[in-house]
Amino acid sequence: MKSILLYSFLLFSAIQASAQAKREIFFADVTIYVEGSKYYLTGSKGGSDGPQGFAFLESKDLKTWAVPAKSQDSLGTILTKGDHTFGTKGFWAPQIFKDKGTYYITYTADEQTVLAESKSLLGPYRQREIGPIDGSEKNIDSYVFKDTDGKYYLYCVRFDKGNYLYAAEFDMNTGKIKPQTLKRCFERTEPWESTPNYKSGPIMEGPTVIKLKNKYYLFYSANHFQNIDYAIGYAVADSPYGPWVKYKNNPIIHRSIVGENGSGHGDLFEGLDKQLYYVYHIHNSPNKVGPRRTRIVPVVKHWDERAGVYTFSVKGNEVIVPVLAGE
Length: 327
Known about the structure:
The structure is a single chain. With 327 residues, this protein is mostly beta strands. It has a single domain (25-324), classed as Glycosyl hydrolase domain, family 43 (Tachylectin-2, Chain A). Helix content is 8%, strand content 43%. It contains two helices and 23 strands. The strands form seven sheets. Strands 10, 11, 12, 13 and 14 form a five-stranded antiparallel sheet that branches. A hairpin with a 4-residue loop joins strand 21 (293-304) and strand 22 (309-314). The longest helix has 22 residues, at 2-23. Pfam families: Glyco_hydro_43. Residues 1-19 form the signal peptide. It comes from Dyadobacter endophyticus. This is Beta-xylosidase. InterPro entries: Glyco_hydro_43, Glyco_hydro_beta-prop_sf, Glycosyl_Hydrlase_43_Enz.
């Protein structure tokens, strides 16, 4: 009888786990925008299912998500290939922000960074003039940062036998960078940024920038995304261009901390509860990279009085697995 009960319990647990996996969200290169009493999540969808572009999911608690009730379609689409937008393929790594009453999305398509806008958070996001931000070279993983003095900066990745992070002043009126200000952020220097589990050139990508007490904090991912050691660290500077000092205890998100492979490329945001969180993606399974799964982890911010900077860590035992409602 005990054996039967044990078998039944294990079978039920396996069915529950399978159902949970089917309801998980498979967005990579993720970001979360917070407005009103809700969270809005978008990212790289991957695969060939559905139209090329981006879609929103919304939530009140970060755990259960659904297509917004007021969405323009049943997919939650906010930007679509060919609808007054640049790009034919490879729609990756979106960021949503609002400025002076207008919503913006910056994203990657055709290995170019792009800026589109909308008067509604739910879109559609379109361009007044179709084209990339900077067509002079391939550049991906854009992040637009507004400084306290009103200046804007574009952080992105450019290729040079590897992926390197760059910063440049950004003109919101023209949607272009000021080329003379373009500067590489830093080189690959730390052991965690290059582990032997997947050989590749230098890769640093997926930037997010925040400013606290006149210090700039640049969060980024390192290693190839197919590496099980794809991970997240940060660096600190006194100006938007650096020089950047990497945190000595990097990485702050890694499989050894959150328990799942390929933990990287996301965004930092403040929750409705005033708690900091980082949203990121992981590998599909221990033996398979894609489609990648979405995760959210609480972030701990600590003021280091002696160093005069904040330090960041995550609560690796409190990772949130976001799921779709009603499936």
